[in-house]
C-alpha cells in the first residue's frame, strides 16, 4: 500500500515513465477530477472579471505602460541552419534551425470574445515561410488554434502531438501526424524531437478534460538543444529533464498568468518558479513566453515581465553564466552554432 502511495507522490519516479491513466483520463502525479479543473477555470475567469468591474484591472490600469513599445514586426528568413527564434505571441514561436521551419502551439486569432489579442501576431500567418514541423504541447485553445492549423495544412507539415490528439487531425485531412507519450523521440535526418512531461492538463470543454495528454518538447540539432516548456506548474520534472539533457542551450519558458495565484498555481508557474525551473534545467538562455498576448488572469499586462526582471536580479549570483532575452512580439533572437547569441530585428 505504501509503495503505491509513494509511486503517486514521487513525481521524479513517475515522470521517468510514460503518462498515467485513470477513469480514461491522463494525469501527472495526483489525479484531479475533470469537474475540479473546469471549476478552476470558471473561478479564475470570475476573479479576473471582478477586478475589471472594480477598476483594479480596467483597460486603463491594464495598459498603463509603454504599451506600444512591445510591438515589433519583421519578415522572417526563408530558412536558416543557425538557430533563429521569433516570438509570435503567447506560446507561438517560429524556430528556424537546420534548414527547417518549426512552429510551436499556433494561435493567430483572438482567444475568444472575452479574451481578444492585445497585439497582432508578431508574424502574420500569411507571412510565415513554409512550415516543415508543428509542435503541439496540448490542446487548449490558446495553444492549438484549429483555424490556423487548417490554413497551415497547405504546407503539408509534419505535426507532432501529445497522445490523444491525432484523431482530430486525421478527421481534418492532415497527412503527417505523429502522436507521442512522455519521453518518446522522433528523428528526422539531423533533427530530433523528444516529447517530455509537464504538470498541466488538457481539453477544451468539460467532457474532454484530460482525455488527451499534455507536455513539453526538446528540439536537438547539431548539439544545440532548445526546450519548449509548453504550460506547466513547477515540479521536479524540470530537474529530471535537466539531468537527462546535459547543457540545454535555450529554454522557451512561460511566466504567466501569475494571478490569482491560489487558483492558477496548480497549472502555471509564476516568474520566481520559472527562474527556478530554468536553474533546474541547467540551461544557458531564457526567453519568456505566455504573457501579455491576451488579457487572461488578474495580472496587469507587463506585470510578469517586471517581476521577472526583479527576480532575475535577485538571483544574479546563480545566473552569472546565463542570459535573459526579453523580446518583443515579432522580435527575433539568433544564435550561431558556436552558441554566441545576438538580438535581431530591434524596433524603436
The oligomerization state is single chain
The CATH homologous superfamily is termed Ribonuclease Z/Hydroxyacylglutathione hydrolase-like
State the helix count. 10
| Count of individual beta strands | 17
Largest sheet: 8 strands, mixed
Radius of gyration: 19 Å
Task: Detail the topology: elements first, then pairings.
Blueprint: H1 2-9, H2 11-15, E1 20-22, E2 25-27, H3 34-54, H4 59-62, E3 84-89, E4 92-97, E5 100-104, E6 133-135, H5 146-152, E7 158-162, H6 166-171, E8 177-180, E9 185-188, E10 191-196, E11 216-221, E12 224-228, H7 237-244, E13 248-254, H8 261-264, H9 271-281, E14 283-289, H10 303-314, E15 323-324, E16 332-335, E17 341-344
Parallel strand pairs: 5-6, 6-7, 7-8, 12-13, 13-14, 14-15
Antiparallel strand pairs: 1-2, 3-4, 3-16, 4-5, 9-10, 10-11, 11-12, 16-17
Helix pairs in contact: 7-9
Task: Write a brief structural summary.
The protein is α/β, with parallel strands linked by helices and 348 residues long.
Write up what this structure looks like.
It is a single chain. The N and C termini lie far apart (62 Å). Strand 9 and strand 10 form a beta hairpin. This protein is an alpha/beta fold and 348 residues long. It contains ten helices and 17 strands. The protein has an eight-stranded mixed β-sheet. It has a seven-stranded mixed β-sheet with strand order 9-10-11-12-13-14-15, with helices on one face. It has a single domain, classed as Ribonuclease Z/Hydroxyacylglutathione hydrolase-like (Metallo-beta-lactamase, Chain A, 4-Layer Sandwich), CATH 3.60.15.
Amino acid at each position: 500500500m505504501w509503495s503505491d502511495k509513494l509511486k503517486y507522490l514521487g513525481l521524479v519516479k513517475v515522470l521517468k515513465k510514460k503518462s498515467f491513466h485513470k477513469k480514461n483520463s491522463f494525469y501527472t502525479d495526483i489525479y484531479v477530477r475533470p469537474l475540479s479543473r473546469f471549476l478552476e477555470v470558471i473561478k479564475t475567469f470570475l476573479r479576473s472579471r471582478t477586478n475589471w468591474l472594480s477598476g483594479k484591472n480596467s483597460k486603463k490600469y491594464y495598459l498603463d505602460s509603454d504599451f506600444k513599445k512591445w510591438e515589433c514586426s519583421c519578415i522572417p528568413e526563408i530558412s536558416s541552419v543557425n538557430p533563429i527564434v521569433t516570438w509570435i505571441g503567447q506560446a507561438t514561436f517560429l524556430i528556424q534551425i537546420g534548414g527547417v521551419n518549426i512552429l510551436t502551439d499556433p494561435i493567430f486569432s483572438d482567444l475568444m470574445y472575452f479574451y481578444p489579442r492585445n497585439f497582432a501576431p508578431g508574424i502574420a500567418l500569411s507571412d510565415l515561410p513554409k512550415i516543415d514541423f508543428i509542435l503541439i504541447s496540448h490542446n487548449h485553445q490558446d495553444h492549438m488554434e484549429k483555424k490556423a492549423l487548417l490554413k497551415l495544412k497547405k504546407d503539408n507539415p509534419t505535426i507532432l502531438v501529445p497522445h490523444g490528439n491525432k484523431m482530430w487531425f486525421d478527421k481534418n485531412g492532415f497527412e503527417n501526424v505523429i502522436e507521442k507519450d512522455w519521453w518518446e523521440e522522433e528523428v528526422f535526418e539531423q533533427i530530433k524531437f523528444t516529447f517530455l512531461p509537464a504538470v498541466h492538463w488538457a481539453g477544451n470543454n468539460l467532457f474532454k478534460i484530460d482525455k488527451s495528454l499534455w507536455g513539453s518538447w526538446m528540439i536537438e540539432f547539431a548539439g544545440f538543444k532548445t526546450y519548449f516548456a509548453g504550460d506547466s506548474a513547477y515540479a521536479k520534472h524540470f530537474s529530471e529533464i535537466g539531468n537527462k539533457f546535459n547543457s540545454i542551450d535555450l529554454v522557451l519558458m512561460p511566466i504567466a498568468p501569475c494571478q490569482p495565484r491560489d487558483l492558477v498555481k496548480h497549472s502555471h508557474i509564476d516568474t520566481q518558479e520559472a527562474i527556478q525551473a530554468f536553474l533546474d534545467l541547467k540551461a544557458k538562455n531564457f526567453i519568456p513566453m505566455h504573457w501579455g498576448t491576451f488579457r487572461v488572469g488578474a495580472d496587469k499586462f507587463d506585470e510578469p515581465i517586471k517581476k521577472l526582471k526583479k527576480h532575475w536580479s535577485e538571483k544574479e549570483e546563480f545566473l552569472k553564466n546565463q542570459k535573459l532575452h526579453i523580446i518583443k512580439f515579432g522580435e527575433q533572437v539568433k544564435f550561431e552554432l558556436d552558441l554566441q547569441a545576438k538580438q535581431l530585428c530591434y524596433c524603436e
